[in-house]
């Protein structure tokens, strides 16, 4: 049993904190949203009224926050994590943020005597609740070893990506690839339909042929093909287009820092931006197929 502070109890963090409590850890939970903290207490966590109260006795601090600006503020501010956590505490930031922000946090935290890993996740809200996330971890070997048993209560795969920032590097590369394969998959389904193919027949063929990908076999953008895919519920309760665009823009910024053009990722950003304007911010990203059907 470990004393763990959990900050950021939203769509993802709520389920993750609940799984840590279920695994027998003492989880002290904080969020700016009162209802989010109440839900966490109902799931077995203890309420904290401030970041200071949450972290002051914790050996491990997990954060699951919207963006890099939120993360740096929560760790750095005078009433934040670094000002109040015990020396040597292990920070696990599971938010998706830029590689640069992750490295900045690691540098400052290490200098202040803490241990730190960037540990972003793959898998959506369902995986957060089921405890089946994939964690991509950036940190030293010793930090990864210390983080692994904690993360294992929330995930099915805990992979050491490399040094600080490597977890975020893996995350944005993965999601850049996902963004592109989903658009290709949607275009193929729309063309198949226009050519008179039964979507079920095309799915059966492509999912066993060279066009196969996760976008096809685990997340098909056409209803009735993959159980639990957002296409079965009119693209609600999935990976919101705003989050996909956030990740894609982090990837594009990293590409330009590395002097890369990333032609397909750039085009994908253009297509998803148009989808966002026409269909609104909450739909799942795979609903971009509806944009293509309009052509
Ligand atoms: P969310 O907006 O539902 O939750 C964020 C929570 O952080 C909110 O409850 C908010 O009140 C809280 N918060 C913000 N600032 C705070 C502060 N200063 N102190 C305490 N709490 C604060 O977001 P989410 O969907 O849970 O996503 C969290 C992170 O996980 C993001 O970085 C996102 O990119 C990443 N992610 C999300 C998904 C997904 O499917 N939703 C999948 C993989 C990764």
From TrEMBL:
Gene3D superfamilies in alphabetical order: N-(1-d-carboxylethyl)-l-norvaline Dehydrogenase, domain 2, NAD(P)-binding Rossmann-like Domain
EC number in record: 1.1.1.31
Pathway info: Amino-acid degradation; L-valine degradation
SUPFAM superfamilies in UniProt: 6-phosphogluconate dehydrogenase C-terminal domain-like, NAD(P)-binding Rossmann-fold domains
Segments forming domain 3-hydroxyisobutyrate dehydrogenase-like NAD-binding: 165-291
Keywords noted in UniProt: Branched-chain amino acid catabolism, NAD, Oxidoreductase
InterPro entries: 3-OH-isobutyrate_DH-rel_CS, 6-PGluconate_DH-like_C_sf, 6PGD_dom2, 6PGDH_NADP-bd, HIBADH, HIBADH-like_NADP-bd, HIBADH-related, NAD(P)-bd_dom_sf
Coiled-coil residues: none
Keyword presence, NAD: yes
Pfam family of the protein (one): NAD_binding_2
Entry keyword annotation includes Transferase: no
Catalytic activity: 3-hydroxy-2-methylpropanoate + NAD(+) = 2-methyl-3-oxopropanoate + NADH + H(+)
Limits of the 6-phosphogluconate dehydrogenase NADP-binding domain: 3-162
Matching PANTHER family: 3-HYDROXYISOBUTYRATE DEHYDROGENASE, MITOCHONDRIAL, 3-HYDROXYISOBUTYRATE DEHYDROGENASE-RELATED
Protein family: Belongs to the HIBADH-related family.
Name of the protein in its database record: 3-hydroxyisobutyrate dehydrogenase
Taxonomic source organism: Candidatus Phycosocius spiralis
Lineage: Bacteria, Pseudomonadati, Pseudomonadota, Alphaproteobacteria, Caulobacterales
């Amino acid at each position: 049993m470990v004393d763990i502070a959990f900050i950021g109890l939203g769509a993802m963090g709520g389920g993750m904190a609940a799984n840590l409590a279920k695994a027998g850890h003492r989880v002290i939970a904080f969020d700016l949203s009162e209802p989010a903290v109440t839900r966490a207490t109902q799931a077995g966590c203890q309420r904290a009224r401030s970041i200071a109260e949450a972290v002051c006795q914790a050996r491990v601090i997990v954060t699951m926050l919207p963006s890099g600006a939120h993360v740096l503020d929560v760790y750095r501010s005078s009433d934040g994590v670094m000002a109040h956590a015990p020396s040597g505490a292990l920070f696990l930031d599971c938010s998706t943020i830029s590689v640069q922000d992750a490295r900045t946090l690691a540098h400052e935290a290490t200098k202040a005597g803490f241990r730190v890993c960037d540990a972003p996740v793959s898998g959506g809200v369902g995986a957060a609740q089921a405890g089946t996330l994939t964690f991509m971890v950036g940190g030293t070997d010793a930090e990864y070893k210390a983080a692994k048993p904690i993360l294992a209560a929330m995930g099915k795969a805990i992979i050491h990506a490399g040094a600080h920032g490597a977890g975020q590097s893996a995350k944005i590369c993965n999601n850049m690839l996902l963004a592109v394969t989903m658009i290709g998959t949607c275009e193929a389904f729309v063309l198949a339909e226009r050519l008179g193919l039964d979507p079920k027949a095309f799915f059966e063929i492509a999912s066993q042929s060279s066009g196969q990908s996760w976008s096809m076999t685990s997340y098909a953008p056409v209803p009735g093909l993959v159980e639990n895919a957002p296409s079965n519920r009119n693209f609600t309760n999935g990976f919101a287009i705003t989050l996909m665009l956030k990740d894609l823009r982090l990837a594009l910024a990293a590409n330009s820092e590395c002097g890369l053009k990333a032609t397909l990722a750039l085009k994908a950003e253009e297509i998803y931006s148009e989808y966002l304007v026409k269909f609104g911010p909450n739909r799942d990203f795979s609903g971009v197929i509806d944009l293509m059907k309009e052509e």
